[in-house]
Amino acid sequence: xxxxxxxxxxxxxxxxxxxPTKDLPEVLFVGKSNVxxxxxxxxxxxxxxxxxxxxxxxxxxxxxxxEVDDSFYLVDAPGYxxxxxxxxxxxxxxxxxxxxxKNPNLKLVIFIVDSRHKLxxxxxxFYNFIIDNNIPFLLVASKIDKLNQSExxxxxxxxxxxxxxxxxxxxxxxxNVGIDxxxxxxxxxxxx
Length: 192
What we know:
- The chain is an alpha/beta fold.
- It has one domain: Rossmann fold.
- The protein has five helices and seven strands.
- The protein has helices at 37-45, 90-100, 121-132, 149-160, 179-191; strands at residues 7-13, 26-31, 63-68, 72-76, 106-114, 137-142, 168-170.
- The chain has a seven-stranded mixed beta sheet with strand order 1-3-4-2-5-6-7, sandwiched between helices.
- The relative contact order is 0.18.
């Protein structure tokens, strides 16, 4: 398994064409605005201040590249949906990501959803996109620590109606739940 000991921010890119010059495999983190993408990267790095987090949705606007153990990149994508100002930026997201998904170095998409909410139309659209384009993915249900037992069961049932059980994991970035399993799945994808 990859150690995840040395994780460093490399650059923010306006598009895939502006990516870092070092040619490495990539793992993309994508999901709605404010779903916990940056927090999850911080949990993987065991560094709460590596990727900037905000309580306001729509803070990340660029592709943020983090190099892991000199062997691959974690890429934090902008969230899709609504920004804090209420403006819709799906078109900007779609344009940036359409270019990104032509990336031959993409090994895995970590598709993050908030475990507290049912999957929305944007989530289902993105899921259908990655399935239709045969893109390897893992669905991650974030913020699992905020649910009680019956809410966890309802969340699993909701997600299982769309993906197979081995295609998703529940995590908590703050309580470190599921982080080691996620590291293992990322390591396996990078080595394939």
